[in-house]
């Protein structure tokens, strides 16, 4: 009953004309980012945060979350029509989606993907609605000690985002934490690393840093490679055949479950969900030989899974305040920019906002189906705009976006420095995700730790005084240890004992 | 690539040592627990350790590592990257002086010429829309104030 009344409250907020407009705009921008190869969801979401700076908080968050899950829809279009993934989670769709397009079934592939995405996104949102209440009740019992342990758990996600080198991921994590230290000390107000600059007293603004790390660095990388314009396949009829509908049903159900569950797991990305779904469908298929030659199951499963993942990844953010992926971390920064700390307290203090945003996911998924099917020809036309114009215009928006946060040219300089630094760091394969995560969680964690220590007059054992905190710390240790195992070379011992790596 | 990686490792190490030194001058600990210098100091120390590990890892790599990979691309690619960075540096330097509209017009004009072969009329249209048009859109509809020129003559004509 509680769930229903909360949902009704949310729908009453999400369905106001103003919030509907923000959801539509978010879906349009999200699809656009997904459609454009070379701009990923993290970069796109970061680039568009300044657009929401002047909006009311509910509208801003509705729009930004719509941008976030809208990218998953848009990425499919280029995968199917051009064989170029708009974003990583849709890469696997290229295999069978583009083969379907070559056979004149592009429209059917796009329909199956859009409907699957709708079902996956809706399924994960229902899961969020169901678990939000119980999880937040537990989290509301948290004091500074438990909160510190929860943040340690959040930072242990770094291991999941480590990529090929744990050392590099940890280095970037430390750099992010150091950047977060710039400005006034959160407890005593002493300035740290401000070098006498007034602009740094309030700390580095999150938005220009993220715009540089993700947005500018991606543009520089693409400018270096010089993307070439591709010619897309014809869309054709949007209506799938009966056989295609029958073949898609089970993969959509399985994709919804896989995506939602993996979305909950810290460090898992949308592409992992879609890859797992694809391999599962191939394994379960009676005709695995069809995969790679235009099997509709190879589109339905992964596309459902990546959307379920996107919405599922919002569950830890909304209930516990933990971002499970870099893009969700960017989203968390947007919450904070609007003076909102995602987590259990938000449910108690701003129920209309939280449930309004959650209800907007249902609305947004409907909008995205409409945007992606009847309006598909518009997105195809956008792909014909030369990249030089797109990049120049995006750069202009970035300058305005960075400037508009505080009406300061200093922030444009911060974006530029962050972007160039990220571009150079990526040359050495340093991952950017840990910087974002620590930049956002670092100050929260430091505040929680220092408050805990003040409560105990400097006695560190307070951190282990709460059973819940101990459980969370043990869980963090387990995540760190299990994630570290992948960096230990597997050894096969044979005969005399020579190790083969 | 190996030598550049070693150089980068050394830069990280130097940076982390500077952080340690700077945080040492802040309060490290008090009766109430960690002071403002506590976290930065240990983060600097951690970064030093990680930088050293990375330097050792790179040193132990056989041969030139990713020897075939150029750190920066040659020719056209590098020119495009340098153009974008240079144009952004100039906009940071001059936007407060000549105002958003003129600086952004020049910025877009330059980038469109350097980044791609776009027809001249289209270049002018995009540069005008991206500077004067965006200024109108942001100041009128979105209530975002973009910088006007600090030169009186330019400010007087709405730039």
Mean pLDDT over all positions of chain A = 83
Count of helical segments of chain A? 21
Characterize the main sheet of chain A.
2 strands, antiparallel
Average pLDDT score of chain B: 87
Largest interface: A-B, 56 and 67 residues
In the predicted model, the low-confidence regions of chain B spanning at least 5 consecutive residues are: none
Going across the biggest sheet of chain B, name each strand in turn.
1-2
Weakly predicted, low-confidence segments of chain A? 491-501
DSSP summary, beta strand count of chain B: 2
What is the number of domains of chain A? 1
- Give the distance, in angstroms, between the N- and C-terminal Cα atoms of chain A: 57 Å
Instruction: Summarize the helix and strand pattern of chain B as letters.
Output: HEEHHHH
Order of helices and strands of chain A: HHHHHHHHEEHHHHHHHHHHHHHEE
- Strand-residue proportion of chain A: under 5%
**Total beta strand runs of chain A:** 4
Radius of gyration of chain B: 24 Å
Quick summary:
The complex is a heterodimer of chains A (501) and B (159). Chain A has 501 residues and is mainly alpha-helical.
Characterise this structure.
The complex is a heterodimer of chains A (501) and B (159). Chain A has 501 residues and is an all-alpha fold. Chain A has one domain. Helices cover 69% and strands 2% of the residues of chain A. The longest helix of chain A has 34 residues. The N and C termini of chain A lie far apart (57 Å). The C terminus of chain A is likely disordered. Chain B is mostly helical and 159 residues long. Chain B folds into two domains: 59 residues; 82 residues, no CATH class. Chain B starts with a helix and ends with a helix. The model of chain B has no long low-confidence stretch (mean pLDDT 87). Chains A and B meet through helix 8, helix 9, helix 18, helix 19 and helix 20 of A and helix 1, strand 1, strand 2, helix 2 and helix 3 of B.
């Amino acid at each position: 009953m509680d769930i229903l009344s909360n949902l009704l409250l949310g729908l009453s907020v999400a369905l106001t004309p103003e919030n509907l407009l923000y959801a539509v705009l978010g879906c349009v921008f999200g699809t656009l980012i997904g459609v454009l190869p070379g701009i990923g969801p993290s970069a796109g979401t970061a680039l568009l945060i300044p657009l929401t700076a002047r909006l009311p908080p509910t509208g801003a968050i509705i729009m930004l979350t719509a941008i976030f899950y809208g990218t998953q829809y848009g990425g499919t279009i280029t995968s199917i029509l051009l064989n170029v993934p708009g974003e990583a989670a849709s890469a696997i769709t290229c295999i069978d989606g583009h083969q379907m397009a070559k056979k004149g079934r592009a429209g059917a592939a796009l329909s199956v993907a859009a409907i699957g995405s709708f079902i996956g996104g809706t399924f994960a949102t229902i899961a969020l609605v169901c678990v939000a209440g119980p999880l937040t009740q537990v989290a509301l019992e948290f004091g500074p000690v438990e909160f510190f342990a929860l943040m340690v758990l959040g930072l242990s996600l770094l291991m999941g985002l480590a990529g090929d080198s744990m050392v590099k991921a940890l280095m970037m994590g430390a750099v992010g934490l150091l950047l977060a230290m710039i400005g006034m000390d959160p407890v005593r107000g002493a300035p740290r690393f401000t070098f006498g600059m007034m602009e740094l007293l309030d700390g580095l603004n999150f938005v220009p840093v993220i715009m540089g790390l993700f947005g500018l660095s991606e543009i520089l990388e693409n400018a270096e490679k010089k993307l070439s314009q591709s010619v897309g396949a014809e869309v054709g009829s949007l209506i799938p055949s009966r056989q295609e509908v029958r073949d898609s049903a089970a993969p959509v159900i399985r994709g919804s479950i896989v995506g939602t569950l993996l979305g909950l797991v810290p460090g898992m990305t949308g592409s992992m969900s879609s890859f797992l779904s694809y391999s599962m469908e191939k394994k379960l298929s009676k005709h695995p030989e069809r995969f790679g030659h235009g099997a509709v199951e190879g589109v339905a499963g992964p596309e459902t899974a990546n959307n379920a993942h996107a919405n599922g990844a919002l569950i830890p953010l909304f209930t516990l305040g933990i971002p499970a992926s870099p893009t969700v971390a960017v989203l968390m920064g947007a919450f904070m920019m609007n003076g909102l700390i995602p987590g259990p307290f938000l449910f108690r203090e701003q129920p209309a906002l939280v449930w309004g945003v959650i209800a907007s996911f249902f609305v947004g998924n409907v909008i995205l189906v409409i945007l992606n099917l009847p309006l598909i020809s518009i997105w195809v036309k956008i792909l014909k705009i030369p990249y030089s114009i797109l990049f120049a215009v995006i750069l202009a928006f970035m300058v305005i976006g960075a400037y508009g946060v505080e009406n300061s040219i200093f922030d444009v300089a911060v974006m530029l420095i962050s972007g160039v630094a990220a571009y150079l760091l990526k040359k050495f394969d340093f991952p950017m995700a840990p910087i974002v995560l620590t930049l956002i969680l670092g100050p929260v964690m430091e505040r929680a730790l220092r408050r805990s220590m003040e409560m105990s007059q400097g006695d560190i054992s307070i951190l282990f005084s709460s059973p819940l905190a101990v459980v969370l710390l043990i869980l963090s240790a387990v995540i760190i240890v299990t994630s570290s195992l992948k960096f230990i070379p597997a050894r096969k011992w044979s005969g005399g004992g020579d190790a083969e790596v | 690539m190996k030598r550049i990686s070693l150089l980068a490792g050394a830069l990280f190490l130097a940076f982390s040592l500077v952080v340690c030194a700077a945080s040492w001058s802040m309060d490290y600990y008090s009766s109430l627990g960690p002071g403002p210098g506590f976290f930065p100091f240990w983060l600097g120390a951690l970064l030093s350790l990680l930088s050293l590990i990375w330097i050792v890892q790179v040193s132990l790599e056989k041969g030139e590592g990713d020897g075939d990979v150029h750190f920066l691309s040659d020719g056209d690619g590098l020119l495009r990257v340098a153009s974008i960075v240079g144009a952004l540096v100039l906009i940071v330097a001059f936007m407060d002086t000549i105002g958003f509209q003129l600086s952004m017009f020049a910025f877009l004009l330059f980038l469109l010429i350097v980044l791609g072969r776009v027809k001249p009329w289209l270049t002018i249209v995009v540069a005008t829309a991206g500077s004067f048009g965006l200024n109108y859109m942001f100041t009128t509809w979105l209530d975002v104030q973009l910088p006007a020129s600090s030169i009186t003559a330019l400010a007087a004509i709405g730039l």
